[in-house]
Amino acid sequence: MKVLITRPRSQADSFAEALAAAGFEPVFFPVIEIRPLIKNAALDRAIEKLDRYDWVVFTSVNGVEAFFDAIARERSDRSNLPFDKGIASPTLRSGQAPLARNDTFPKTAAIGPKTAQALEARGVTPDFVPGEYVAEAILPGLGDLRGRRVLLPRAEIARKALPEAITAAGGVAHEIAVYRTLPAIPDPAGLAALKSGVGAVTFTSPSTVANFVRVARRAGLDPLRLPGNPRIACIGPITREAAVEAGFTDVIAAEEYTTEGLVEVLRARDA
């Protein structure tokens, strides 16, 4: 069965490998691309005053990469060295040696295992990872937030549920957009496969849903009546909700909100 992958191409390889190992034929059809906000004065100021925050909460791998790449640029600017991704110390642990001009690194929370792995690759072990990989599930792990400052490096169009919950709990949520999600140019091979019919279309974020609908319509397809009547598989409940709101029916969602979970739910339905 052909399975369409709509996530950014740069983040699709491990998902494609898992699909192939499970007996599926992955088809790359990225409908979004991620662009970090390079000239980001708000983020630079937050990094300079990182010790004023009690928590830094990361809700995506993209947020981790944009945040730590900004730290690397700041360090290279101070040392007059060329910027190099990954300049942050690989031995750093939360609360130990600083990454910028601060004495300590705040406590960190990661939305799920992939985001936690991205943090660990940058040298920071997250203090909290929720059991359910949605933003709202992070709140209980942050403890008493009254008077606490929480930094949220996020997408430009991120959902407001988490900062609103932090504010309602008495905390101060400081949202900073560190990357934006842009529509991708349709891949010709992927579009040809979609027009000939695939067995499943996978979505890994609400933005992949929205942009897939746009891309399909521009290609002369009805996204809700695709050739082959593919099943729609979403990484979790938030993405599933976006798919349902877009008009898709019989939408399935992974029980574990990861690409591995997506593979499992597709394999279960294909059995």
Helix content: 25-40%
Oligomer: single chain
**Distance separating the two termini:** 12 Å
Largest sheet: 5 strands, parallel
Shape: elongated
Topology, number of strands: 10
Order of helices and strands: EHEEHEHEHEHEHEHEHEH
Radius of gyration: 20 Å
The structural class is alpha/beta
- Sequence stretches where pLDDT stays below 50 over 5 or more residues: 81-103
Nearest-integer average pLDDT: 87
Number of helices: 9
Placed side by side, the strands forming the largest sheet appear as: 2-1-8-9-10
SSE layout and pairing:
Elements: E1 2-5, H1 13-21, E2 25-28, E3 32-36, H2 41-48, E4 55-58, H3 61-79, E5 107-110, H4 113-121, E6 149-155, H5 161-168, E7 172-183, H6 188-196, E8 200-203, H7 206-218, E9 231-234, H8 237-245, E10 251-253, H9 259-270
Parallel strand pairs: 1-2, 1-8, 4-5, 4-6, 6-7, 8-9, 9-10
Antiparallel strand pairs: 3-7
Helix pairs in contact: 3-4, 7-8
Describe the structure.
- With 271 residues, the protein is an alpha/beta fold.
- 35% of the residues lie in helices and 19% in strands.
- The strands form two sheets. A five-stranded parallel beta sheet has the order 2-1-8-9-10, with helices on both faces. It has a five-stranded mixed beta sheet with strand order 3-7-6-4-5.
- Helix 3 runs parallel beside helix 4.
- The longest helix is centred in the first third of the chain and has 19 residues.
- It is elongated, with a radius of gyration of 20 Å.
- About 8% of the residues have low confidence.
